[in-house]
Amino acid sequence: MSIIRAAIATAILIVLTARAAQAQLEITPFVALHAPTGSFPYPVNPDVFSTVSTEQETAFGFGLGGRAWLDPNYGVQASLSRIGSDLTFGAPAHLTTLTAAALLRLPVRSITNPVWATLGAAVVARGGEGYEGVDGTTSVGGVLGIGTNLPVRDAVGVDLGFDLLVYPLNLERDGDVAGSSTQFDLRVRAGIAFTLVGGPPEE
């Protein structure tokens, strides 16, 4: 699966970057709520081509994230999540999301915990029974987010994040394109961050 290979390559790149820069490296298993906000044209008939407007349902899932702080204010972050999100007409489906983004710590003086913004690339892959025979199910777009970490003890903290995923979707069946749409998905993440190398980033 190409998105899994991309996730492995991204993880290796973050680890190598952290080691080369002697950076703080964190890993975060998380629970995610993925909420697609728009409908899209779906090719329903393989014999006589036709489309319907459908949506992906809001659902919970799980994921894994990695973060490397190259200095107290800048870093890189990646995440991979899998959500069992059915189509609204009842077909089982799922979403696999890979993100890779730059981190910028925000100067929020009134909050002692670190708060950061993220901006980068996202790959969203649709799969499952609902997409059998459908092409164009993998989309490349962007991600904009914000996050924070609430320390619990040394090298452990509660990690919270909010992402906006923006990407094009062009589904087709047997060469017939159902239509184009731009998707805006919201993803809320909550997990436990473990610091593997280095200490908490200081300003």
Question: How would you portray this structure in words?
Answer:
This protein is mostly beta strands and 203 residues long. It has one domain: Porin, CATH 2.40.160.20. The chain is 10% helix and 62% strand. The chain has one helix and ten strands. It has one helix spanning 2-21, and strands at residues 24-36, 40-43, 51-54, 59-71, 74-83, 94-105, 115-127, 138-153, 156-173, 176-197. The strands form two sheets. The chain has an eight-stranded antiparallel beta barrel with strand order 1-4-5-6-7-8-9-10. Strands 2-3 form a two-stranded antiparallel ribbon. Strand 8 and strand 9 form a beta hairpin. The protein is elongated, with a radius of gyration of 18 Å.
Please outline what is shown here.
The chain has 203 residues and is mainly β.
What attributes characterize this protein structure?
single chain, 203 residues, mainly beta, Porin, eight-stranded antiparallel beta barrel, two-stranded antiparallel ribbon, 1 helix, 10 strands
Task: Describe the secondary-structure layout.
Blueprint: H1 2-21, E1 24-36, E2 40-43, E3 51-54, E4 59-71, E5 74-83, E6 94-105, E7 115-127, E8 138-153, E9 156-173, E10 176-197
Instruction: From the 3D structure, determine the CATH topology.
Output: Porin
- Give the integer mean of the pLDDT values: 85
Count every beta strand, where a strand is a DSSP E run of 2 or more residues: 10
Report the span from N to C terminus. 40 Å
Total count of helical runs of at least 4 residues: 1
Main β-sheet description: 8 strands, antiparallel, barrel
What count of structural domains? 1
Strand order of the largest sheet: 1-4-5-6-7-8-9-10
- Uncertain segments of ≥5 residues (pLDDT<50)? none
Question: H/E series, N to C?
Answer: HEEEEEEEEEE
Counting helices, strands and paired strands, the structural category is: mainly beta
For the record, the CATH architecture stands as Beta Barrel
CATH structural class:
Mainly Beta
